[in-house]
Amino acid sequence: MKFEVTILGSSSATPIFNRNPSAQVLNVNERLFLIDCGEGTQQQLLKNGIKAQRLNHIFISHLHGDHYLGLVGLLSSLHLYGRTRPMYVFGPPELKEILDIQFKYSQTELRYPLEFYATQAEKNELIYENPDIRIETFPLEHRIPCTGFRFNQKKRLPKIIKEKVEELGIPIEMIPLIKRGIDFTDKKGVVHAAAELTQEADPPRSYAYCSDTICNWKYIDQIQGVSTLYHEATFMHDMSTRAAETFHTTSLEAAQIAAKAGAEQLLLGHFSARYRELEPLQEEARTVFANAKLALEGHTFAV
Amino acid sequence: MKFEVTILGSSSATPIFNRNPSAQVLNVNERLFLIDCGEGTQQQLLKNGIKAQRLNHIFISHLHGDHYLGLVGLLSSLHLYGRTRPMYVFGPPELKEILDIQFKYSQTELRYPLEFYATQAEKNELIYENPDIRIETFPLEHRIPCTGFRFNQKKRLPKIIKEKVEELGIPIEMIPLIKRGIDFTDKKGVVHAAAELTQEADPPRSYAYCSDTICNWKYIDQIQGVSTLYHEATFMHDMSTRAAETFHTTSLEAAQIAAKAGAEQLLLGHFSARYRELEPLQEEARTVFANAKLALEGHTFAV
Questions:
Q1: Which residues catalyse the reaction (chains A, B) (predicted)?
Q2: CATH number of the structural domain spanning residue A226
Q3: Are A100 and A187 within one domain?
C-alpha cells in the first residue's frame, strides 16, 4: 500500500525566489491529502504533475498566510474546472469566515459542496477515518492557535501466502475470507486453518506533521513512535533565542524531538529565507538524529 | 522621464503551469505602481528583480481571485521586512474587509500604515496625483464591479536647449527658473527671453489598464488617445459568444477598441489557459491593429 509524501513547499513566511511556502501531498493508497496550502500551491501541483481534481481532503494547520493563502485560488480553480464532488476542508474555525467572505465578494457559488470541519487547537481529536487511515489533530504551540496532524495507517489484515494459493488451488474469491480468519477446505475435504495460510501484515505506519511550533515537548506523546515526522526547523540552533521568540524550532531541536519520539525518519522544513543553502540545517540535525532529511520541494518520501 | 510597464502575470483565472495571474508594475519616473496582484506576485517580483519595498501604491481592479489573491502575502511580507513607510492600496471597498479579517486572524499588526482608498466602480474618479502623473478610474463591465485605471503623465515644463546653456554660460541653478518662463540676463546685461532658451517638452503620455471587461464600448471615451492600452483578450474571436457570456473580450475586439481609441500601442493580456500558444491571439489582433503585442511575463514595454 502506497504511503508517501510529496513536498510542494517548505519555506517559511518571508518569500525567497524559487522556494514556496508550506504545502505537501500525502498519498495513502492513492487517496491524496493536501496538508497546508501556501500561496502558489496550484502552480506547485501543476509543476509536480499532481491533478488538483484528485484532492478530496485539505488540512490547514493555522492561519498564518504562508500556510493557507493558496486555498481560495485552488478552491476557485476546482470550481472553474467544473468539479461536482464534495471537498472536505479541515482547519481553524475562522478559516470558514475567510473563505466565505472571499467567495461572497467574488460572487462565486461553488459548483461543488465545500464541507468544512473546524479543528480544535486546544485538544487532541480524531477528525477523519477511512478503511486505510485515521487522522488525528493535536495542539502545537505557536503565536496563534495551530494544530499538528497525525496520519495513522490502520492495522491491516494478514497477507495470504502466495505459495499456498498455488499449492492448494485456493480460488481468488476465498482470499479475502481467509484473510478474515475463515479456514479453507480443499477439494479433498482437507481443512487448512486460516492462520497457516497467512502471515502478519506489515506493521501500520504513520506520518506526523508539526508546523509551526515552539519546541516545548508538550506534543511528544502525540508523535510517539511515528514512522515519519515532518517537523519545522525554521532556524539553526545558533538562533535558538530568535526561534523561541518567534515560536519556532531549530534544526537541532527538531532532531531531539524526533529522537525522543522514536521516529524512524525526520523531514525538516519551514526553512527561513535567510538560509540560501539548506545542507547545514540537515547536518546540524544529523548530529542528533541520523535519518534527518531536508523536505525539499518536488521530493517524494516513503513514509 | 521613464514611463514603462513590466508584466508579472497575464493569465486568466484557471491556472496554467509557468504562467501567472494578473499583475504588472508601472514605473513612472522611478516611482513604482503595482496594478493588480494575483497569486504568486511576490515570487514574480523576486524573479524580475523588482524590490517589493519600492512599491508604495497598489491598485486592484476587482475582487476575482486572479487579480488580488497575492495581496495579503505581499503586504505580510513587507511587514516581516520591517517596513515603516505607508502603503497606499486602491481597490473595491470590500477589499478592506477581506484584508482586515485575514490580518485579524493571523494576529498581524502591520508595522506600517496601510492607507486604503475605496474605488467607485460606477463612475470616473481622480484617485491619485503627484508632480508627474494623475491616476483616474473608470467603470468596466464585468460579472462583478470592476474598474479600469488610466495613468496620465502631466504636461511637463519646456526643456532647456543645451547649446544655449553652453553658449551663454547659464548657471545650473537658473535652469529651473528659465523653464518656468523667467528670462535670463547674461554677464553683459543682455536679456534672453525664456522662450528662446527652451523648447516644448515631449507631449504627455498615458497608460490605460482594462481587465476584465465585456467589449461594450462604453469606456471608449475614457481611453481615448491613450499612448499604450493594456486590454484583456481572454479568448480568440471564434469564442466571442463564450467571451460575452463570461464578460470577457476577444483579441479581435481588443484590437478594435485600441483602433477606435486611437491608441499607439496595444498590450494583450488575461489569456485563457486553453491557449498554450499565444501568437494566434497577437496575429488576430494585428489584422485590425498593427501595433498589438502580447503582454508576456517578464517583458517590459515603454509606454
A1: 66
A2: 3.60.15.10
A3: no
Which chain B residues contact residue A46 at CB under 8 A?
15-17
Q: From the CA of A142, how many Å to the nearest CA of chain B?
A: 11
Q: Which amino acid is present at B42?
A: Q
Beta carbons of B24 and B6 less than 8 angstroms apart: yes
pLDDT at A1 over 90: no
Band (pLDDT 50/70/90 cuts) for residue B18 is confident
Q: Which is it for strands B87-91 and B114-118: parallel, antiparallel or unpaired?
A: parallel
B1: confidence class by pLDDT, cuts 50, 70, 90: confident
CB contact under 8 A, B13 and A94: no
- Quote the Cα angle for B257-B263-B264, to 5°: 135
How far is residue B218's CA from residue B186's CA, in Å, rounded to a whole number?
A: 55
- For residues A58 and A75, membership in a common domain is answered with yes
- Whether residues A141 and A283 share a domain: the answer is yes
Q: Is residue A32 domain-shared with residue A176, that is, in the same domain? A: no
Contact of B107 with chain A, judged by CB distance below 8 Å, is answered with: yes
Instruction: State whether A79 and A182 are in the same domain.
Output: no
Number of domains chain A is built from: 2
Handedness of CA B122, B116, A143, A289 (dihedral sign): positive
Instruction: Give me the mean pLDDT over the B227-236 stretch.
Output: 98
Q: What is the pLDDT of residue B156?
A: 86
Is the pLDDT assigned to residue A213 strictly greater than 90?
yes
Contact of B267 with B285, CB cutoff 8 Å:
no
Q: Which domain holds residue B46?
A: 3-156+202-302
CB < 8 Å from A in window 19-78 of B? 20, 39-40, 42-43, 46-47, 63-66, 69-70, 72-73, 76-77
CA distance A196 to A207: 32
Same domain, B297 and B167: no
Residues making up the binding site of A: 62, 64, 66-67, 142, 212, 270
A234 and A195, same structural domain?
no
Active-site residue, B66 included:
yes
